[in-house]
Specification:
This protein has 94 residues and is of the alpha/beta class. It has one domain: NAD(P)-binding Rossmann-like Domain (Rossmann fold), CATH 3.40.50. Helix content is 30%, strand content 19%. The chain contains two helices and four strands, in the order E-H-E-E-H-E. Strands 3-2-1-4 form a four-stranded parallel β-sheet, with helices on both faces. The longest helix is centred in the C-terminal third of the chain and has 15 residues.
Length: 94
């Protein structure tokens, strides 16, 4: 039985692909998501499941979770890398 990981795309395509490949090396099935399929072209592997996902959409997030639960029955790891780049001193942000 393979562990299941959900990995939304990074701002950097390189980081997304690299970290997905590291999960694959460790024996995970990787549900890789991005806002478009072309962004995931480098991820050709039998244990990668590609899905279009906008993480700002509650409906799309709920849908992907439902798909994974239906197909796999569980989620073992979620990579949370959503963020907004900010410039300035950290104590100046709320």
């Amino acid at each position: 039985m393979y562990p299941i990981a959900v990995h939304p795309a990074h701002v950097s395509e390189y980081l997304h692909v690299h970290s997905c490949l590291k999960l694959l090396e460790r024996g995970f099935i990787v549900y890789a998501t991005a806002r478009s399929l072309p962004a995931m072209e480098p991820l050709e592997h039998p244990l990668v499941r590609k899905h279009v996902l906008d993480v700002t959409s509650n409906e799309q997030v709920t849908a992907i979770v439902n798909i994974i639960m239906r197909e796999e029955g569980r989620i073992d790891m979620v990579i949370n890398n959503a963020g907004v780049p900010l410039a300035g001193q950290s104590n100046s942000f709320p």
